[in-house]
Amino acid sequence: MRLIWALRSAVFVLYLAVTVVPWALAVLLISIFASPTTIYWSCVGWLRVAILGARAICGVRWRLQGMENVPTAADATSAVLLASKHQSTWETFAYPVLMPHPLAYVFKRELLYIPFFGWAMARMDMIHIDRSKRTEAWNKVAKRGRELFAQGNWVIMFPEGTRIDRGRKGVYKSGASRLAIDAGVPVVPIAVTAARCWPRKSFLLRPGVVDISIGAPISSNGRQADELMREVEGWIEAEMRRLDPEAYAHEGA
Fold first, then answer.
1. Contact present, 155 and 145 (Cβ < 8 Å)
2. For 173-211, what is each residue's pLDDT tens digit?
3. Which residue, 183, 159, 163, is CA-closest to 171?
4. What sign results for the dihedral spanned by CA atoms 18, 20, 23, 26?
5. Residue 73's pLDDT is what?
6. Contact, 129 vs 55, CB < 8 A?
7. Which residue, 19, 74, 91, 209, is the most exposed by fewest CB within 10 angstroms?
8. Are 137 and 129 in contact (CB under 8 A)?
9. Which long-range contacts link 219-228 to residues 24+ away (Cβ below 8 Å)?
């Protein structure tokens, strides 16, 4: 069985490599004259190709609940900050496909150096930061975040900062809650079980279902950053245990 998974995963990686090159070149060409919104949805087209490929080739399906907790595409004036569990590459590909508004990720600038993929990312309204310069990085996040919210875009952040192994919890940092408070927007927490099918730091995909659960917006008005993040953390971690109890069985041992 593992050999079959490995073969299917190898086909999927090849599929990503073959499709990303012409798509990225097309985005670079389009970006010369297209609007930021057009560039964004052009890039999302490849992300859709990627997650549909994962489903067709590797059997990675998804199940989504809680979409009523985010504004619809017709509501262009309502901004939210999405704060998500981070287990896998899968959710970074899937969220722009699933969400009705353009998303701006906060990510390390090194990703821009990835051939083709990173070059296309550089054309989008994202927030890339130098993690070694913390004060400068935060100032950039705060400034660009406010600008993007004003344009009707949403910012998405992973409070744990990096991908976390299935069944584990990282340290939830308060950057996302600080930005939400600074911009006066609510935080929408998201739990996702992507590592069930696509583990961190691995390209060995397993067939199965990724559950995504979107929580109700949490107001940032009058809140302290640490206290707000603890509420976000509490909801996400409780929801992770509901969605994927097998992964947390060790906690009751």
1. yes
2. 998 999 999 999 999 999 999 999 999 988 899 999 999
3. 159
4. negative
5. 66
6. no
7. 74
8. yes
9. 219/186, 220/177, 220/180, 220/181, 220/184, 220/185, 220/186, 220/187, 221/184, 223/177, 223/181, 225/174, 225/177, 225/178, 225/181, 226/174, 226/177, 228/174, 228/177, 228/180, 228/181, 228/187
| Whether 123 contacts 31, CB under 8 Å | yes
Q: What's the total number of domains in the chain?
A: 1
pLDDT for the residue numbered 132: 64
Interatomic CA distance for residues 174 and 163, integer angstroms: 17
Give 135's pLDDT tier (boundaries 50, 70, 90). low
Cβ atoms of residues 119 and 29 within 8 Å: no
Is residue 160 pLDDT above 90, yes or no? yes
Range of the domain at 118: 2-252
Rounded distance between C-alpha atoms, residue 137 and residue 135, angstroms: 5
Find out whether 205 and 4 touch, Cβ atoms under 8 Å.
Answer: no
In sequence order, the 6+-apart residues with CB closer than 8 A to the CB of 66 are: 212, 213, 214, 215, 216
Amino acid at 40: Y
Could you tell me the CATH number of the domain that includes residue 160?
A: 3.40.1130
Phi, psi at residue 73, to the nearest 5°? -60, -30
Structure-block tokens of residue 68: 């009523």
Beta strands in 66-122 (DSSP E): 81-84, 103-108
Provide CB contacts within 8 A for 176, sequence distance 6+: 81, 83, 157, 159, 187, 229, 232
